[in-house]
Structures are given as structure tokens and as C-alpha cells.
Fold this protein.
Amino acid sequence: MTAFLNGQYLPLAEAKISPLDRGFLFGDGGYEVIPVYSRRPFRLDEHLRRLQTTLDGIRLPNPHSAAEWKDIVLHLVARADFEDQSVYIEVTRGADTKRDQAFPVGVAPTVFAFTSPLSTPTPAQRESGIAVISAADIRWGRCDLKAVALLANVLMRQMAVDAGCAETIMLRDGYLTEGAASNIFVVQDGILLAPPKDHRMLPGITYDVVLELAARHGMPYEVRPIAESELRAADELWMTSSTREVLAITTLDGEPVGKGTEAGKPGPMSRRMYDWYCAFHDEVSRRADA
Ligand code: PDD
């Protein structure tokens, strides 16, 4: 498998970085995960814009222009053996000769990228929806940046795995923030509710696509803070991300999501949104071919 490291394409197994790299020592860097359908990166410009926002937010000069990043991504995508991919890119503040929290002077950033097969939910997960748990959001104050310092997210995801669940939904001060590696949507009385993009959550690229599709297809939606009580009384819950796409959550903390005979099953609005999402990325790939 081909990787990109500091200006060179090389087999992934040969890509080596220093143990003094600040990504390793401090989690001092930013990253992106870009889905690729039929060898067409989906929403690449938006992912590269968010990378720029992350790097600006951590005061790390972007080592590549958007055009250079596109070249790197397309080069990796073209050389992979698979059609649908997930491209990972990471920039760290590089490796100094000593360990010091303050920024090093005159040190080049480390740039790493590689691509893997896109691993989307299984047909069984789509059919039954997934189970999640909830927990207090213990992360720092800049969750809007896609930083590689992900220890709290790692602990949250593992908490879900230990409970036999697919994700942990986080709550801060009684309000929904997001999942350990996803954004969360709530459906209540036919209205799609989304928490507002602020420093408490990552501004998801899939989140934006979902709201655009809701607007395009006339699905009513509101962007506003969502209280824990609303989360627990939801008719539907969804998680979204570049790799999970749009996925129904059917159990929260052991309780079925929804009411009546539909409780614990993927709801009609999640099915509709997932269909629109698939049709949309197909349409975008076809347009790129035109
Ligand atoms: N994670 N919130 C968090 C904390 C995330 O880590 C992610 C995605 C999202 C969804 O963002 P997007 O729709 O742009 O993928 C929200 C990626 C997939 C990851 O870290 O692997």
C-alpha cells in the first residue's frame, strides 16, 4: 500500500518518523479523513478547508496549498487497489532534537497520508441500527478543531466497545455535543434537530451534507442546542461521519430509541436521509466524470 511522507511516495511499511515527532510526544498536529467513492474524493475542498481551519487554530503553517493537497490525495487514490477509499492525512509540528512543549524553531512539519478501503457500516448494522451509550464529555475547549490529540475520544470509543456498543454520545452541561467519532442528530415530531456548530463539537462535513439534503428535499430541520431530556425522548437518533455515513441509532443506554411499535428500529427519516446521501455522492461522482 502506498503512503505519502514528507514529499515522497513510498510503501506504507517503509514510512518511518522520529520518536521525537511532536505528533507522538504531544498529539501536536491536525488530521482529516476523506471518503472516496468510485475513486472520486467526496467533498475534498471542504475537508481541505477544515484542515486549514485546524492548522490555523493550532498555529501550524499549512505546508501545502490546496492544489498540492489535491495532487497528493489523487495520487494515492489512483494507486490504490480498491475503488471506495478513506484517505487519512495528518500534519504535525515535526521532530525537534529535544522535548519541549513550546513550539520548536526552524523545524519542518511532518506530513503523512495514506489510503485504506472505505469501511462503511455492514448491511446488518443498516438493517437493525446500532446501540450506543452516553457519557460526560470530558474533552478540551476546542472540539471544533480536528486535532490528533484524541485521548478522550479514544477512551469514549473504548467505553462503547466494552459495553458491546458502536459509539458513545457525549453530553456537556446537560446538552448533546457529539459522538466520540461522529456527529449526532435527533428527530422529534417529524423535525430533524442538529446541535449548533461551536467549539464543543467538530463541524462535520457529513453534518453539512445532511443539512443541505434536508433543505433540498424539504425535510424540516432546526439547528439549536439539544437537551439531554430531548435526546432521551427522541423519535429517531442518527450518527453521521465520513465513514459511517448516516446510520440509525436504535438503542441508547440499553433503552430502545423511539416509541410504540417502531421503538428500537431505524426510523423512516433516517432511511430517507441515507438514500438521499447515497444518491448525492453517486451524483457527485458522475458529475466529476462528465
Ligand atoms: N471522525 N465528530 C468527531 C469527534 C469525529 O471524529 C468525526 C469524524 C465527526 C464527523 O465528521 P465528518 O462528517 O467530517 O467525518 C464528528 C473521523 C471519521 C475519524 O476520526 O476517523
Remarks:
- Residues 268-289 form the longest helix (22 residues).
- Residues 123-282 form a domain with the D-amino Acid Aminotransferase; Chain A, domain 2 fold (CATH 3.20.10.10).
- The chain has two domains: 2-117, 123-282.
- The radius of gyration is 20 Å.
